[in-house]
Amino acid sequence: MNACMFCRIAERKVPSEIVYEDDQIVAFHDINPQAPLHILIIPRRHVVSVEELKEADAPLLGHMMLIGAKIARDRGVGDSGYRIVFNTGMHGGQTVFHVHLHLLGGRPMSWPPG
Ligand code: AMP
Ligand code: ZN
């Protein structure tokens, strides 16, 4: 069995609230939302973090970000604004080691982040 929780979500082997999927990526609700809208967007391929991505992955990264923006618009936060972020490594606050883009919206975000 694949030990990676996000691979298992992408394979639909564990339940999650999937909001979008295609041949490259899957988007689903964060289990512990930090904003009224909190979606995670992951590649189907297991990649640990942004640190592992290569130039050839630029289209994949762009696709993840553009789908994040589309989901934000579709869910009504396109005009009010939102944040998309890759927590990366220890200082970046990454806790799940399958790369994921957070889409957060529906409330004002502060800066700098904690
Ligand atoms: P990060 O700290 O950037 O690695 O973010 C990991 C995120 O994954 C956190 O916001 C968690 O709440 C979320 N998470 C962990 N397990 C699950 C799960 N099974 N389904 C949905 N979200 C999850
Ligand atoms: Zn994985």
Descriptive report:
By secondary structure, the protein is of the alpha+beta class. It has a single domain (5-105), classed as HIT family, subunit A. Helices cover 24% and strands 22% of the residues. It has a 5-stranded antiparallel β-sheet, with helices on one face. Strand 1 and strand 2 form a beta hairpin. The mean pLDDT is 97. The structure holds adenosine monophosphate (AMP) and zinc ion (ZN). The site of zinc ion has 5 residues, from helix 1.
What key attributes describe this structure?
24% helix, binds adenosine monophosphate, binds zinc ion, 114 residues, 3 helices, single chain, alpha+beta, HIT family, subunit A, 5-stranded antiparallel β-sheet
- Summing up helix and strand content along with how strands pair, one would put the structural category as alpha+beta
CATH level 3 topology? HIT family, subunit A
Largest sheet: 5 strands, antiparallel
Q: How widely separated are the two ends?
A: 35 Å
Describe the global form.
globular
Strand content: 15-25%
Strand order of the largest sheet: 1-2-3-5-4
Q: How many strands?
A: 5
Binned, the helix content reads: 10-25%
Number of helices: 3
Q: Which regions have little confidence, pLDDT < 50, spanning 5+ residues?
A: none
CATH-level-2 architecture: 2-Layer Sandwich
Mean pLDDT: 97
Brief characterization of the structure:
The chain is α+β, with helices and mostly antiparallel strands and 114 residues long. It contains three helices and five strands, in the order H-E-E-E-H-E-H-E. The protein has a five-stranded antiparallel beta sheet with strand order 1-2-3-5-4, with helices on one face.
